[in-house]
Amino acid sequence: MRENKLSIVVSTGILMLIVAFVSCDSNTVPVSNSHEVRFTSNIARKAMADSVWQANDEVGIFMLEHGTGTAATAQAVGRGNKHYKADTASQSSGFTPFDAANTLKWDDLGMNPAPFFDFIAYYPYVTNTNDMPELEIKITDSSTEQDTGKADFLWGRTNNVQNNTSQVALKLKHLFSRLIVNIGPSTTVDASAINAGDLSIELSGLKTTAIINLDTGVVTPDSSNSVIMRNISDTLTTMERLAGKRRFEAVLVPTDNATALSSFVLDFFLDEDTYEWEAASVAQTDKGKIVFESGKQYVYNMTLNTAADKVAVAAIQIGIEDWVDGGSISGGAVK
């Protein structure tokens, strides 16, 4: 399986030509006049249909003492959870500090400056980080369609960066899972019924709050709620939509097999009709494949049926693009 990670490159500004008297002390590290650490993104892949940074997307960055530094110690010395934002809406965007108070700088000229630093970065930015290194993240408020771009949590840590290095690559990875549900017409709920109706999907039985350890990237599931999946049918062609096809997505807190198998449910609402699919209904040979792992994307190909004898769950097939390979499943939801 391959893994595509979101990379953020940290670079200093254009170095001005300076003349400096360097101390005979070999530990003295020369730095630029501005000392400012600048951030740019070279590749973007968030969980959303357009898959790009949006202008003013907000990230938090920690500049740590090398080796022993933590999010909490960086916070204590004024280098923790600095607020940066994306400059443009594109796959490659620069990042600038929210204001002067959030600007990270390299150590100044002088005797024995810190020779190395470690960096932690995450998206989306959270103001309250009083419980370092733990950060509580909620992926939904359950009352509206999930904003998958903001629910997607990215985290990365890069160690052993030399003071005043011109370019520092901070690679962010997905800590949550992504689920895509593709809906197609069936013999009992055909294209005309889907096209004439208003379809939505609600997901339940899984944790929707997680505690993130910013030092390690470890995710601990917390409380549960329902998730209204985001309708991304506009990513389909006009012909596909006319054929009765629809597409939805959701970002999920990672969930182990036993929990997902016993509690995961999808409810499909087509006007006044409700169709339900339970993870426990899959064939015995597929039960071990119902799981949501960190950084993986899963595709479920579903149909809506009015009789139980129409339900059929195919074998889960591995091989999904963009995120780390996850799983694909085909099946039916019963009215």
UniProtKB/TrEMBL annotation:
Native species? Parasphaerochaeta coccoides (strain ATCC BAA-1237 / DSM 17374 / SPN1) (Sphaerochaeta coccoides)
Q: Which InterPro entries match?
A: Mfa-like_1 (IPR025049), Mfa-like_1_N (IPR042278)
Q: What is this protein called?
A: Fimbrillin family protein
Pfam families linked: Mfa_like_1
